[in-house]
């Protein structure tokens, strides 16, 4: 979701005479920490089903990653959108943490979005997501918002945290490109 919206935001910013150079000149504190945390999440997700050790330690890698990201967001809180981005990440981290290290996803939302084919994958436990059950905590923070065209470029199910993070990073990119 973030990538699709960001592309649209960048195009709108260009239309408003925005510049990627102005965005690149923005001083972001601890940018290496943001990049490292995102790479750590990506590595943990890619290696999840390839290594028993990674599957067993996955919640710890995600926790470390989100902790680094939260700290970097806090340090950059004065930049436009960073508090929203950080809040979205914090909401996602909270629901993931209380549910054993994986993001719960609503079966109904998957079906409504036309993504029923993903249900077997989630049942096997081969992703960073898991199907919601009666034991799922903080359901309202899980991936429960189904989106499909024309409200998104492609069908997906997102969380309130995803929406807040997308709003924050979009606000940051637009403001810094157009100021």
Explain what the structure shows.
It is globular and about 50 Å long. A hairpin with an 8-residue loop joins strand 3 (145-147) and strand 4 (156-158). The strands form 2 sheets. The chain has a two-stranded parallel sheet with strand order 1-2. It has a two-stranded antiparallel ribbon with strand order 3-4. The chain is built from 8 helices and 4 strands, in the order αααααβααβββα. It has one domain (2-178). It starts with a helix and ends with a helix. The model has no long low-confidence stretch (mean pLDDT 90). Helix 5 packs antiparallel against helix 8 (160-178). The chain has helices spanning 2-15, 20-24, 31-47, 52-75, 82-98, 107-112, 119-124, 160-178; strands spanning 103-105, 129-131, 145-147, 156-158. With 179 residues, the protein is mainly alpha-helical.
Quaternary state of this entry equals: single chain
- Judged by helices, strands and strand pairing, the structural class is mainly alpha
**What is the CA-atom radius of gyration, in angstroms?**
17 Å
Q: What portion of residues belong to β-strands? A: 5-15%
Number of helices: 8
Number of strands: 4
Shape: globular
Overall structural domain count: 1
Q: Which strands sit side by side, in order, in the main sheet?
A: 1-2
Alpha carbon gap, first and last residue: 25 Å
The main pleated sheet reads as: 2 strands, parallel
Mean pLDDT: 90
Low-pLDDT sequence parts:
none
- How much helix, percentage-wise, in residues? 55-70%
Topology order in helix (H) and strand (E) letters = HHHHHEHHEEEH
């Amino acid at each position: 979701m973030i990538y699709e919206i960001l592309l649209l935001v960048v195009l709108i910013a260009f239309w408003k005479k925005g510049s990627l150079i102005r965005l690149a000149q923005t001083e972001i504190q601890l940018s290496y920490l943001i990049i490292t945390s995102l790479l750590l999440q990506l590595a943990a997700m890619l290696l999840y089903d390839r290594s028993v050790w990674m599957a067993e330690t996955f919640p710890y890698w995600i926790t470390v990653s989100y902790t680094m990201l939260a700290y970097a967001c806090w340090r950059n809180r004065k930049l436009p959108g960073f508090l929203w981005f950080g809040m979205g990440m914090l909401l996602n981290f909270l629901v993931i943490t209380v549910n054993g290290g994986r993001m719960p996803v609503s079966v109904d939302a998957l079906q409504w979005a036309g993504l029923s084919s993903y249900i077997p994958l989630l049942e096997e436990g081969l992703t960073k997501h898991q199907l919601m059950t009666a034991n799922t905590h903080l359901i309202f923070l899980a991936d429960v918002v189904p989106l499909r065209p024309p409200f998104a470029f492609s069908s997906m199910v997102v969380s309130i945290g995803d929406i807040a993070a997308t709003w924050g990073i979009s606000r940051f990119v637009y403001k810094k490109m157009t100021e």
